[in-house]
């Protein structure tokens, strides 16, 4: 599947999680449930994957951790906050660049209607 097709499946799985759990839980609760849904959908999912940073030609380990990466193509950053801020998108774009991925989804589960909490971030490699 390509990134856009994957994003549709990811969003569908996130909606099932949000419908079942509602809002107000910790990010870790949504993360484990979304990981479960994505695996049930037959997707390859990495959870809390270390993302190294290269600084002055030296690879520094475990500087960042990806919440979820689906099929090694789409990074999913999970939030449970009052509102998404521009810094959240910048953070996800940085992850995309470091992981050499094209598409990321920021999903804020702390909203009444999940569609209001989803933001796509693209990395124009």
Can you describe this structure in just a few lines?
The protein has 125 residues and is of the alpha+beta class. It has helices at 3-21, 27-40, 86-99, and strands at 45-55, 58-70, 74-79, 103-108, 118-122. Strand 2 and strand 3 form a beta hairpin.
Shape: globular
Number of strands: 5
Arithmetic mean of pLDDT? 94
Query: What spatial order of strands do you see in the largest sheet?
Result: 1-2-3-4-5
Could you state the order of secondary-structure elements as H and E?
A: HHEEEHEE
At the fold tier of CATH, the topology name is: Trna Endonuclease, Chain: A, domain 1
Ranges where pLDDT stays below 50 over 5 or more residues in a row are none
Roughly how much helix do the residues carry, as a percent range?
25-40%
Q: What is the terminal separation in angstroms?
A: 19 Å
Count of individual helical segments: 3
Specify the CATH class. Answer: Alpha Beta
Largest sheet: 5 strands, mixed
Q: How is the quaternary structure best described? A: single chain
Q: How many structural domains?
A: 1
CATH architectural name: 3-Layer(aba) Sandwich
- Share in β-strands: 25-35%
- Going by helix content, strand content and strand pairing, the class is alpha+beta
Rg estimate, integer Å: 14 Å
């Amino acid at each position: 599947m390509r990134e856009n097709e994957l994003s549709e499946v990811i969003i569908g799985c996130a909606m099932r999680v949000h419908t079942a759990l509602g809002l107000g839980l910790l990010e870790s609760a949504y993360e484990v449930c979304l990981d479960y849904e994505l695996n049930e959908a037959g997707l390859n999912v990495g959870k809390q994957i270390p993302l190294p940073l290269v600084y002055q030609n030296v690879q520094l380990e475990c500087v960042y951790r990806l919440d979820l990466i689906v099929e090694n193509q789409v990074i999913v950053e999970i939030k449970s906050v009052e509102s998404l801020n521009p810094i959240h998108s910048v953070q996800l774009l940085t992850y995309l660049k470091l992981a050499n991925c094209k598409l990321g989804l920021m999903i804020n589960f702390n909203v009444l209607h999940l569609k209001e909490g989803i933001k796509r971030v693209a990395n124009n490699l």
